[in-house]
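Let's sit down with a protein and look at its sequence and fold side by side. We need material for that, and I hope you will provide a protein of your own picking. Once you have written the record down, we can walk along the chain together.

***
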Amino acid sequence: MENPRRELEGKVALVTGSARNIGRETALELARAGARLVVHAQTAKDLCDEVVEEIQAMGGEAVARLADVRDAEAIGDVVNLGIETYGGIDIVVHNAASRGNITIEDLDFETFVAPIDISINGFFHLVKASLPSMKARGGGVYVGVGGMTSTKGAVGRAHVSAGKMGQAALVRGLAHDLGKYGIRANNVIVGSFDTDRSGPSSATTSPSGNVKVPLGRKGLPADLAKLVRFVVGPDAEYISGATLHCNGGAYMNL
């Protein structure tokens, strides 16, 4: 059921990796809540433009820019686009990630550091660029999007797990350092998700095949998007430094 509230009216949100799947749905959900959006991807300009058009079609406001989050200057330009267009940044959701399975014996160093650069260094660049605006506006919210493999590990995903676990620690550090400014920081952790938006599957195990999902289906992008909407909204104003799981109960069976 669609939430008719506009609790994010007047807020400006930047969602990295928002051209498709979970990031796209998160951007759309925050727009439904009244936020003005900065849509981001590394290369998918056509998909970014589609998200902007969809937000505008629902009566919202959005702009888009491409950037590699590992490039401090480039991601600073994305943040500045939101500041120059809408007057500031209130919400940053770091969803961009590097994925792919490759076992440690076949993993070269460049491939190993890619998800670490994106999840940790990219988040650092986002914070450094957006923090002055959040402080000037009297508060804000940072959200890191992670996965269950950062907790339990998985075959062929040591590099991805390392990046996401480091990101989770960084977010907790932000909560400690920035709470005095009214700035919150939280992690949201997804389980096994369908990302083609084709509807729930009947799958009850994770991709690694060994984690049962009590609710009996994979998650949908909308499931995570609704959680993010809550986490960045006024109803979560006393939640900071938390890790919130969205996995149909699979975390109980790790």
The domain at 12-253 is CATH 3.40.50.720 (Rossmann fold). Confidence is low (pLDDT under 50) at residues 197-209. The two ends are 30 Å apart (CA to CA). The first strand starts at residue 12 and ends at 16.
